[in-house]
Design the sequence.
RNA sequence: CGGGGUGUGGCGAAGUUUGGUAUCGCGCUUGGUUCGGGACCAAGAGGCCUCGAGUUCGAAUCUCGACACUCCGACCA
């Protein structure tokens, strides 16, 4: 094949230009397209199918932990948004406002929800009266709007799809447990279903959600060594309850404020998957969320019996897997490249030679390794290969993370590690002062990502000021 | 929000310096031959040159403005 044609079809290599590689995949794998409003993207059927799988799997986990789905309005009156002062301060700069209904100016302008804490609070204030009404374990799937200045498909868009869980509890302890439980649900989902290792941690004071007592996050590492916040879980204490007057009568007939949490993940997860597993042939999808798990590609499909056999296999495999049979006129080579671009985990080739031997060829997306599978054992073979692929891409992502995690004691060590090995997580102690946090960022370019849970090491000196350190911090550049 | 880059059929580009009514590759349509790593032949279809104002006999090309995309920083899911 001549070079000219190659240029047309191939994507930019990730080594050459990671940012362009990313947007190439978004476009060429048919995940999303730009629209006429900056930062608002069209999520195309293939991209949306990935989101539907994410939704389905997460929703099951939410239900399993006792949550119910609800739907809150898209608009928030300005006065309602204003009730919690830290919250409004955090979000005011990026809300979109509705000022007119038709041609009539509104008496009070309405903001398009950037997040729905205030709406849930208003509702809880109206419906929570007794300890018997608690806990409230609500979740909603919706889109929210934040008027971002710079945007990128999936990673940062002005409108994005997400879920937001909002819970109200009788006690602080219960709410803290909920916050940690949901962080765990996210971490589990990322690791098991997205095959993406994450670091669970607590955000520093300066990095907390607007209005939260504490914010937790799962941080993933992308292929280029930059960090991506994959999900967050917040503990609110009774701050919102006081601002919105959410009280219940407890067992001792005493009026008490509730304790709240909220937690969310968004379509950003799709960006995370692209940048965790993709390669120079395109997307690589974890089997759990792949819209097509097996692409059946007939070879020499005009020859007698081939299409019939391919259809038979589709019927059979369709009972256990998400399967697509491509019987279009495109050449086999074209189809190979196409389904690799789309990240389909497993490709099944079936041609005259296979039919003779009562077998087919299975090819893993990540390694392109071919396996000849007897048709009698096809389901088992496919199952095994999908599981192996999942384990294998998880392992590769994990290795990338370990390889790019640098333990440092001094500022010079940080700079040296980043210079030598490229972007990654820097593990370093921190005294807890905002000054040091800022200084580290200024001088080394890495900001605090989180204070990892379960890794608190006592003692040591702050990497910046040298005083006694309170926390181990993962630092990094972030998306 | 600061600094760069880009905007021409569906996609990628040439043409802009020096104004004269748009070119190439891929894709698409039809017919035929092919088919185990991005096939080939033939005949076709398809363009508000991002948008708006201006200069000019005449603008993709010059001027001004807007919008969008994108990269590098600062901020955020």
Sequence:
């Amino acid at each position: 094949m001549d070079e000219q044609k190659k240029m047309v079809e191939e994507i930019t290599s990730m080594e050459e230009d990671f940012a362009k590689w990313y947007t190439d995949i978004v476009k060429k794998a048919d995940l999303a397209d730009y629209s006429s409003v900056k930062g608002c993207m069209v999520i195309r059927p293939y991209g949306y199918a990935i989101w539907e799988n994410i939704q389905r799997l997460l929703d099951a986990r939410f239900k399993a932990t006792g949550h119910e789905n609800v739907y809150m309005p898209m608009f928030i009156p300005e006065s309602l948004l204003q009730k919690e002062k830290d919250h409004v301060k955090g979000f005011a700069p990026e809300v979109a406002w509705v000022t007119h209904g038709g041609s009539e100016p509104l008496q009070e302008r309405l903001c398009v929800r950037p997040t729905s804490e205030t709406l849930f609070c208003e509702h809880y204030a109206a419906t929570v009266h007794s300890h018997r009404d608690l806990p409230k374990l609500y979740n909603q799937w919706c889109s929210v709007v934040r008027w971002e200045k710079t945007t990128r498909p999936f990673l940062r868009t002005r409108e994005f799809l997400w879920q937001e869980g909002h819970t109200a509890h009788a006690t602080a302890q219960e709410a803290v447990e909920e916050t940690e439980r949901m962080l765990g649900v996210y971490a589990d989902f990322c690791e098991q279903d997205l095959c993406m290792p994450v670091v669970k941690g607590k955000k520093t004071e300066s990095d907390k959600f607007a209005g939260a007592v504490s914010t937790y996050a799962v941080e993933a590492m992308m292929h280029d060594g930059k960090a991506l916040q994959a999900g967050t879980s917040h503990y609110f204490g009774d701050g919102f309850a006081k601002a919105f007057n959410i009280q219940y009568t407890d067992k001792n007939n005493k009026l008490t404020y509730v304790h709240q949490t909220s937690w969310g993940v968004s379509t950003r997860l799709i960006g995370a998957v692209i940048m965790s597993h993709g390669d120079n042939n395109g997307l690589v999808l974890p089997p759990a969320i792949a819209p097509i798990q097996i692409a059946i590609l007939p070879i020499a499909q005009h020859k007698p019996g081939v299409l019939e056999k391919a259809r038979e296999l589709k019927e059979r495999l369709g009972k256990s897997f998400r399967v697509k049979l491509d019987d279009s006129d495109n050449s086999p080579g074209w189809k190979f490249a196409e389904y690799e671009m789309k990240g389909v985990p497993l490709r099944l080739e079936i041609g005259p030679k296979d039919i003779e031997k009562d077998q087919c060829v299975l090819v893993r997306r990540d390694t392109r390794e071919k396996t000849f599978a007897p048709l009698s054992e096809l389901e088992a073979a496919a199952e095994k290969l999908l599981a192996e692929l999942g384990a294998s891409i998880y392992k590769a992502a994990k290795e990338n993370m370990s390889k790019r995690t640098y333990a440092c004691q001094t500022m010079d060590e940080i700079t040296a590690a980043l210079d030598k090995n490229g972007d990654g997580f820097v593990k370093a102690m921190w005294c807890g002062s905002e000054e040091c946090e800022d200084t580290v960022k200024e001088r080394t370019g890495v900001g605090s990502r989180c204070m990892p849970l379960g890794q608190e090491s006592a003692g040591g000196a702050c990497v910046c000021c040298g005083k006694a350190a309170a926390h181990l911090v993962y630092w990094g550049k972030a998306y």
